[in-house]
Structure prediction request, 336 residues.
Amino acid sequence: MINMVSVIIPVYNVETLLRKCVDSVLNQTYSDIEVFLIDDGSTDSSPHICDEYAASDSRVKALHQENAGQAIARNNALDVAVGDYVMFVDSDDWIKSDMIETMVDSAQRHNASVVICSASFDNGNKIADAICPYGSEQVFTGAQVLEEYLTPGRIQTAPWGKLFRRELFDEIRFPPYRAREDYAIMHELLGGSETAVYIPKHVYVQYVRPGSTEYSRFNENKLAVIECDLAIMDYVKKYYPHLYYKVETNYADALRNCMADICRSFVKRRYKKTFLSLKERLKAEIKRLQAEGCKMPLDSHCFAVYHPIVFSLREHFTGIVRWGKRMVKTIIGKKE
Prediction:
């Protein structure tokens, strides 16, 4: 049985990388695909490249929108996609020639709602494979794959590297966040699946570049992670209460991590009110967790609340070290 796959690629100012990405999708061994290139208000030649592909290949559809973020771009494509499956690819990444065929084959063999693959990482100089958490193909129920997802180091939050049955998105859309929009819904997609499969094959390649959302300095868009963690806690408590112990400190973690990010980014003075608000919220959350008998260690959170000066100095030092490592990698990369 042949199933169409809708491949959704948000595009924003990636003129030097876009062709490699799109070509890797169009040159798949599995050809029954439709490809959406959603230009998110790019100011370089990316819109022209999208239109060029749409004119030369009937499988490609170019959509254009004012800059609103990749969440809205993905949603606009989901609204018109007609594939049996949906796959997301970031416009600066690329996929190996048999990725879609491999993923669809696994989905059909197991009648799976979600198929997850491993990935490789391209820093511009070399490609390194991620460590696979499993040595062989794994088949999970929705509850099992959610538990794996909530266990650090197992399953990536990103929508790339996954094949979803289209029906999972009937009631789900990405929230209009500028950061962590995937984190806001991944638990629902995985928890709502009947069967999920993990295949230990590195068929997706992520290009890691400085300045991406994931590695950029703190800004208010990153505060979205707090609402995401609250949503995850509510979802797990409602539908999978036996897994709640895995997320009971998520809110505290999010508050503490945002405080740390402010310090590491050296913007504490600029976001003084935000930092103090996060501290008060964290203090209240620690009291709630303690009152409910939380067994998770809270030392790092207490350190942030009751020893803010030492916490700030420590995180500033961590930021300096991180910046130094990044500079060394940049210099070495230029020499090579």
Observations:
- Strands lie at 5-11, 33-40, 60-65, 85-88, 94-95, 114-122, 127-129, 138-141, 162-165, 195-207.
- The chain has two domains: 5-213, 233-335.
- Residues 61 and 148 are 35 Å apart (CA to CA).
